[in-house]
Each structure stands twice: as C-alpha cells, then as structure tokens.
C-alpha cells in the first residue's frame, strides 16, 4: 500500500463509521417518535436510511478490504451480489431524494391542500416505483454478468471488463442508467427546490415590506432595534438560500465526479488514474454519511427526539419536564389551599334570627 491507498482506506473507514452511526440514530428517532412516523416525508427518509445503512455494511467494507489487500475481495459470486446491491441501493437512494424534493415542493407551494395531495398511499406508490426502477437496472446488469470487481474503484460494481463482446449494449445500458437516475434526479432537485426558493423569497419579501412599514411608523424606535430587524431580514433570506444550496450542492458534489468518470471510462481509450477512481467512489459513499444531517438530524423535531433519547439513556429527566412537574405540583398545592380557605364553617344560628 502506498500513501494514497492509506489515506483512501482511512477515508473509507471514517465514512463507514459516520454513516453507520448517523443513519442508526435517524432510524431510532423514526421508531421512537410517533409524530415522525405519521408524516409522509418520514417514509421517504426511512427508505433513504435503509439504503444508506445497507450500503454501509455491504459495499463500503468490501471497498476497504480491496484497498488494504490491493486485490479481489471474496469470490466472483459474492462480488456479483455486492455489485447488484451497489447498483440497486445507489439508484434507490437517488430516487428517494427526488421524491423528498417533490414532497417539499408540494408542501411549500400548496400548503393548504398538501394533505389531500400527498398522502401515505401516494408515498407508498412512489416508493414502489423507486424499488421497481432500481430492481430493473440492477437485475439486468447481474443477469448480463456486467457486475464484478472493478480495480479502478476498488469495489464490486458495474464492470466494463466483464462486458467484452457486448460493448455497445453495455454502453447503452450505462448511459441509460445514469441518465434515468443521476440526471433525472438532478433535474427534479433543481426544478423543485428552485421553485421552493422562489416561493420562500416571495414570502420573505412580503414580510420585509411589512417590517419596513412598521419601522417607518415607529419613529421613536431605538436605532439598535431597527438594525436588529434589518439583520433578521438578511438572515431569513440567507437561510432559505443556504438550505436549498445544501440539498442540491451535496448531491452534485458527491455523485457528479463518479458519474462523469463512469461515462468517460466508456469512451476514453486511455487509462484513468486509480487514485481518482477511488476518490470518486469515496465521494459517492460520503453521500450516505451526509444524508442523515442534510435531511433529518439538523431538523428541530429530530434534534428534540435525540435530546429526549439522550436524557433517557443517561437516566435523566429533561429540564422542561422537571420544571413542568414542579409547576404542576405548585399549582396543585395552591389550589388545595384556596379550596381550604374558601370552605366556611357552619353557623349554628336559630331559624328565627
């Protein structure tokens, strides 16, 4: 192993650890919090988490072994199974991200009719399509024996070396695969999230107009308060842009180098650096580690659930619940004392008086 292989091995190991821990936390939050389970996006996040976890325990460790041993890890049959999972899980996770973006677009653009437009039945149908779509491509690749150990990526995946004699068919299949998964998902992400950003900016602009009108009327307002309101306007606009940039940016950064390398590999006759191939594969793997933070763990509902679980594990009660319990006890004691004071002793007066 040279220095580059050592760095790549450490990188893959770090991605495996982060991906396993973060996705397991998301899964625990989903199982623990009934409110998350009731929400339609929770089904898409659950499917995405399932794909990321399975990728973390099947494909990533095999890539790590391939980097360490600099050879073929496992037998040919085992590698074909892992290659099948690589195509299936990657395709499934991309389409799940597209489904999540459509769900958020409907929630923002049609907030009043969201629950009638997006129901659990619709989510199940969308997930059924993602599974059928993914199974079709991965099954065809496996049945045609187009999956195997690829030395360029040090992993079991689509392999053009195994497609000798069917080069044209393999090229058509690979281009169709990436066009109907990566390119399709990228278009859906850009269209939906840019529309969401447009609506968010429109609402921010309306709020800004109302805020400015209020500041004009309040002539005696302190300059620091006025500046604070203006700063809040800027933060609100930047927050929406930052979220949309994160959704689209992580997808592009993680998957684009790998997909471009796969396409270039089909048409470029010269050799491609194996260090670049492994790096592009690591970037694709890193999406599984970043998805829990992008879609789940940074949201208030998941952070609150994680806090409750941490307090439960550490045998502590949350401060809010303890203070609420103290307030309830104090209110109960005050009620009892007031009730006692309001009870008047009976007077033994004659009836005539």
From TrEMBL:
Residues 328-346 have a biased composition (Low complexity). SUPFAM superfamilies: Family A G protein-coupled receptor-like. It is found in: Cell membrane. The chain crosses the membrane at residues 6-32, 44-68, 126-147, 170-196, 244-264. GO terms for molecular function: G protein-coupled receptor activity. InterPro entries: GPC_Orphan_Receptors, GPCR_Rhodpsn, GPCR_Rhodpsn_7TM, GPR26/78-like. CDD domains: 7tmA_GPR26_GPR78-like. Signal peptide: none annotated. Keywords: Cell membrane, Disulfide bond, G-protein coupled receptor, Membrane, Receptor, Transducer, Transmembrane, Transmembrane helix. Residues 22-295 form the G-protein coupled receptors family 1 profile domain. Residues 321-353 are annotated as: Disordered. GO terms for cellular component: plasma membrane. The keyword Transmembrane applies. Gene3D superfamilies: Rhodopsin 7-helix transmembrane proteins. GO terms for biological process: adenylate cyclase-activating G protein-coupled receptor signaling pathway. Orphan receptor. Displays a significant level of constitutive activity. Its effect is mediated by G(s)-alpha protein that stimulate adenylate cyclase, resulting in an elevation of intracellular cAMP. This is G-protein coupled receptor 26.
């Amino acid at each position: 192993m040279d220095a580059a292989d050592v760095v790549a091995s450490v990188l893959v190991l770090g991605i495996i650890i982060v991906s396993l821990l973060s996705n397991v936390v998301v899964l625990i939050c989903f199982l623990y919090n009934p409110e998350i389970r009731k929400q339609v996006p929770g089904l898409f996040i659950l499917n995405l988490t399932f794909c990321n976890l399975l990728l973390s325990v099947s494909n990533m460790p095999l890539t790590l072994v391939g980097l360490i041993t600099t050879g073929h890890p496992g037998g040919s049959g085992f590698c074909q199974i892992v290659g099948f999972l690589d195509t299936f899980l990657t395709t499934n996770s991309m389409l799940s991200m597209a489904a999540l973006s459509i769900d958020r677009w409907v929630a923002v653009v049609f907030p009043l009719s969201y629950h009638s437009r997006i129901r659990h039945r619709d989510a199940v149908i969308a997930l059924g399509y993602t599974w059928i779509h993914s199974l079709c491509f991965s099954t065809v690749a496996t049945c045609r024996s187009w999956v195997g150990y690829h030395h360029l990526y040090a992993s079991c995946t689509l392999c053009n070396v195994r497609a000798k004699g069917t080069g044209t068919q393999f090229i058509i299949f690979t281009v169709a695969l990436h066009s109907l998964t990566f390119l399709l998902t990228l278009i859906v992400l850009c269209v939906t999230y840019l529309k969401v950003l447009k609506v968010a900016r429109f609402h921010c602009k309306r709020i800004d107009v109302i805020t400015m009108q209020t500041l004009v009327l309040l002539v005696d307002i302190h300059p620091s308060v006025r500046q604070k309101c203006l700063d809040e306007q800027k933060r609100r606009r930047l927050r929406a842009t930052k979220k949309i940039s994160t959704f689209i940016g992580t997808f592009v950064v993680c998957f684009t180098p790998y997909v471009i390398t796969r396409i270039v590999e089909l048409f470029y006759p010269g050799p491609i650096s194996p260090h670049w191939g492994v790096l592009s594969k690591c970037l694709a793997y890193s999406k599984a580690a970043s998805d829990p933070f992008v879609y789940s763990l940074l949201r208030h509902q998941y952070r609150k659930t994680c806090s409750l679980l941490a307090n439960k594990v550490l045998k502590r009660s949350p401060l809010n619940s303890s203070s609420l319990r103290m307030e309830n006890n104090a209110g109960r004691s005050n009620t009892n004392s007031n009730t006692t004071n309001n009870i008047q002793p009976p007077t033994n007066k004659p009836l005539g008086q």
